[in-house]
TrEMBL record:
This is Tyrosine-type recombinase/integrase. InterPro entries: DNA_brk_join_enz, Integrase-like_cat_sf, Integrase_catalytic, Tyrosine_recombinase_XerCD. It is found in: Cytoplasm. Keywords: DNA integration, DNA recombination. The keyword Nuclease does not apply. SUPFAM superfamilies: DNA breaking-rejoining enzymes. Residues 190-400 form the Tyr recombinase domain. Its main location: cytoplasm.
Length: 403
């Protein structure tokens, strides 16, 4: 039976303590039995699990999203190493890593699930395993480029950390990645996923129009304005263990300009500038919530509120708001005969709104200003992603050439 090795970020410290105190059986009986069984073929399995927990604690405590990403990648890598290769993760050679990549591309059907499943659940003080959990999601096609890139990144960071901790002296991941037949070399032209003008017009406009019949859609409207108008990531708008976005994070300088203080990737704070148009929607949202039109410096009200309950919203909850607006827009596009735009909207994600806003504003704003509002560490990142002028000029200059 496949057993999830790692619980939630909140439970990680307890798992570490149970392993170190040899009391895992009392709270995680299925996991304890699994580790004991694996130990018959991989003697170091318990020590390797302790090391995995330590790695996740170091790299995951800044961000739950980072924790989940590394946990998912390394958990299935560990399981493959122990159950398929029947080796310690620190005994794997280059050919073993290559074999794991092959497995990633086409995993055993018994390792896949059709829906997201929880790992462990409390049952009278004991964390009980969900037997329906599996390491992989069942997909019709092979692993995407993004999935493979995430896997290589996680393994590379893990082995670099292991070398620093003197658990191993070799990292075969870079050479396997360089020669992998599954990775496609990116083209020079890489345009970010964005909504078309008509798609954005419907997403924002339909939500705004329906606010009259459904006032709670004002929350959706404000969320859309933040993600597109301020180039925010969903995580920057959501409630997190180390950061709670509240209304007092909006502030005004002595010249009357408004800003929003955001905690971005790597726990880095930045102040995003507010446009006059955004301030209009900020006032609208606040009045809907029964607040004064503009924020005060002492307001602890969450930026995006829950209809029921206290505090701000999680990433998943905010994503649902965006999807609700996408679904409303899709139906309206279909009703108005814009079938292609409606179908393309099906694949859109909330992150497209950040790209849409930045791509649109890249045509008129100075690159440095845009880069700072986006929270990019390097201006070259903004240039590479959003500035397509040189590509268009190259296309124009080659348009009339003869064959």
């Amino acid at each position: 039976m496949l057993v999830a090795l790692v619980d939630t970020l909140k439970q990680l410290r307890y798992q570490i303590a149970h392993l170190e105190d040899d009391t895992l059986q009392s709270e995680y009986p299925e996991l304890a039995s699994f580790i004991q069984q694996v130990g018959l073929t991989v003697a170091e399995s318990k020590q390797e699990l302790v090391f995995l927990y330590q790695f996740l604690y170091v790299y995951g405590r800044k961000s739950e999203a980072t924790y989940n990403r590394f946990r998912n990648e390394l958990e299935r890598f560990y399981l493959w190493s122990w159950l398929v290769a029947e080796k310690s993760v620190f005994e794997l050679k280059r050919e073993d890593i290559e074999a794991y990549v092959d497995f990633m591309v086409e995993p055993d059907k018994r390792w896949t699930m059709t829906s997201v499943q929880w790992r462990y659940k409390d049952e009278q003080g004991i964390r009980r395993l969900n037997e329906n959990w599996r390491p992989f999601m069942l997909k019709e096609s092979i692993a995407s480029q993004q999935t493979l890139a995430a896997m290589f990144t996680a393994l590379n960071v893990f082995y670099k950390f292991a070398i620093l901790e003197e658990k191993t002296f070799a990292n075969f991941v870079p050479v396997v990645k360089k020669n992998s037949p599954y990775l496609v070399v990116q083209s020079q032209i890489k345009i970010p996923d964005t909504l078309s003008d008509i798609q954005w017009e419907y997403v924002f406009g339909v939500t705004r129009d329906k606010c009259e019949q459904v006032p709670d859609l004002e929350r959706n409207l404000f969320t859309l304005a933040c993600l597109k108008g301020l180039y925010l990531r969903i995580s920057e708008l959501s409630e997190r263990p180390q950061w709670s976005p509240v209304m007092s994070h909006f502030w005004q300088d002595n010249d009357g300009f408004w800003f929003l203080r955001i905690m971005g990737k790597g726990n880095k704070l930045r102040d995003v500038t507010l446009s006059e148009d955004f301030v209009t929607y900020l006032k609208r949202y606040r009045l809907y919530r029964g607040l004064p039109a503009l924020p005060r410096v002492d307001e602890a009200e969450p930026l995006v509120h829950k209809i029921r309950g206290q505090g701000g919203m999680t990433v998943r909850q905010i994503r649902r708001l965006v999807q609700q607006s996408f679904d409303l827009a899709k139906q309206s596009l279909l009703d108005d005969g814009f079938t292609d735009d409606a179908e393309q909207l099906e694949s859109a994600t909330a992150h497209w709104l950040r790209h849409t806003g930045a791509t649109h504003d890249a045509q008129t704003r100075p690159l440095k200003h845009l880069s700072e509002d986006l929270g990019h560490a390097k201006i070259a990142t903004t240039d590479q992603i959003y500035i397509q002028t040189n590509i268009k000029e190259r296309a124009k200059s080659g348009l009339k050439r003869k064959v």
